[in-house]
Amino acid sequence: MKKLVLLGGGYGNMRVLLRLLPNNFPQDMEIILIDRTPFHSMKTEFYALAAGTEADHEVRVPFPEHERLKIVNGEIREIGLEEKCIFLEDGQRIAYDELVIGLGCEDKYHGVPGAEEFTYSIQTIGKSRKTYEALLGLKSGATVGVVGAGLSGIELASELRESRSDLQIKLFDRSPRILRDFPERLSNFVKKWFDNNNVDVVSSSNITKVEPNLLHNHEETIPVDAVVWTAGIQPVKPVRDLNLECDGTGRVVINQYHQLPNDENVYVVGDCAALPMAPSAQLAEEQAEQIVKVLRMKWKGEKLPETMPEIKLKGFLGSLGKKQGFAYLADRTVTGRIARLMKSGVLWMYKWHNG
């Protein structure tokens, strides 16, 4: 029986499963999903888990079940492209005929001394749990530094403020204004929320070193009791170890069919794939839609189109605690309660569609 192996149970491969199951793949094929956990984790909500405003079971859904779907739990040690085999840390070897790499990303520390050793993370559900335990255990009046004011940093800082009103929170933004690549109205709304809720946004920051209970910002040293790093991502180590052609951010170069240029049986989806847009759950799902179309055409022996449709994203949604939010959709800015309700609705629909 032929084997389609999916590496990682993130947003991209969940969409692949949603489109292929129950009967949109060949009868002589088995699908094998390899992931470190026995469930799909909604990474976009890890900030709430780390802040303590969402329970663990609220940020995950079960993988689908099917007689020809096999779930393998384990850590991937090596992706053997030449051997067409996946090597797991526990010694398992899983061969594939076709492979979709959707392993996601991990924190990128940009060579900052001490950043990896002395900061917490929200990149995996396991690391988010540890971050929650650390933040929960802080004494009243403690200072938390959030390094990186992208969407993850903004949502974590705002959710933590609602969870722990007794903490001092500092959000370090490398840019002169928060969300500087988006309309000023959006930036001003987010900054005003932080000002009104006593979150200190440190603009034009440059974290040069992290020590236990100390952050170095330019020439200044800032005492902190805990630091959460949200200042950059890179593909996970098994993907980096492949030494494939990459873009400037380390993401793997792919062709128009989301395949490796020299291997039409290997696809890359999500945060590991080099695309013109920034990595996101929405982008991974749109990629997955096209990968499924390519797979089904190949299985039917149909000729692939010379080009694939351009991926167009709808925008993004962000939360500021449980009552306020912000959105940038179709070049329009939406702020306040409506934006937060929109995000809650999207999350509810995602859970409903994925069981």
Summed up:
By secondary structure, this protein is an alpha/beta fold.
Low confidence ranges: none
Structure classification:
alpha/beta
Strand tally is 23
Radius of gyration: 21 Å
Q: How confident is the prediction overall: mean pLDDT? A: 96
What is the CATH superfamily classification of the largest domain? Answer: FAD/NAD(P)-binding domain
Shape: globular
Q: Tell me the CATH architecture of the largest domain.
A: 3-Layer(bba) Sandwich
CATH fold annotation of the largest domain: FAD/NAD(P)-binding domain
Proportion of residues in β-strands: 25-35%
> Into how many domains do the coordinates divide?
2
CATH class division of the largest domain = Alpha Beta
Largest sheet: 6 strands, mixed
With strands numbered from the N-terminus, the spatial order across the biggest sheet is: 5-2-1-9-20-19
Helical proportion? 25-40%
Enumerate how many helices there are, as a single number: 9
Please report the distance between the alpha carbons of the first and last residues: 28 Å
Cofactor: FAD
Domain FAD/NAD(P)-binding: 3-285
Pfam families: Pyr_redox_2
EC number: 1.6.5.-
